[in-house]
Design brief:
Blueprint: H1 4-35, E1 41-44, E2 49-52, E3 55-63, H2 67-73, E4 79-82, H3 85-92, E5 100-105, H4 111-114, H5 123-134, H6 139-149, H7 162-178, E6 181-189, E7 203-205, H8 207-212, E8 224-226
Parallel strand pairs: 7-8
Antiparallel strand pairs: 1-2, 3-5, 3-6, 4-5, 6-8
Amino acid sequence: MTSDKEVDSGTIRRAGIFQNQNRIRITCYLLLVTCHLSPVTCYLSPVTCHLSLILCYFLYLATPLTLSEVRSMLPSGLRADAVSKSEQGMLLQHHPEAQTVVQIVRGACSCDLVRARKPVTREDEAHLRTRYRQLGLPRDQVIVALENHRRAVEQRPRPEGYWPEAINGFVLEHARNAGPSLYFLGFSYHGALEIPRPVAPPVAVAPGEISTAPTTWLVENQLTVVTRPPRT
């Protein structure tokens, strides 16, 4: 027969495991809330909390316009999301004329704005795998990151170059309406803004350069100010 003492000790052990699982769930919830990681997937086990973060390109814009005004100008299919106050401060200090900082994405990231998707050859995913390998990302994290990247794959794919062309059109229209604005393209976990140190001064790009070099004006990890076009 099982003694009362053994029953009590078994109950206590089960209660301890349950409490640990609750602590893990609470920790994951606080991370999600504190970091604003909407694309995060949290896998819970009795032992550990595993955060699988998206790791892709993300485009930021510091603008004199409001969030609503930016959203009204974006082409259909693109989205402008507000960023945290700390991220706002990181870009606004380099462009005080701005009042709003947004992240411009399609699906879960901004990859489509800078690299064409290749649903057959998967060249875009090969590029991401190379970046992940350079960062030493574990295989399970690579799988989840690629799944998040694929969230923007369309049922009826647009012609190659459609989205870079669309964002360039937005940038030109935005420059005419808002004046000089700051852009930053980064490659980071869950879209967290990370500006490399030391920070180089912003590079000025005229709208004419975007028209003549639509695929090269936006450089990764470079603060870029697109100026207002000359009045005609």
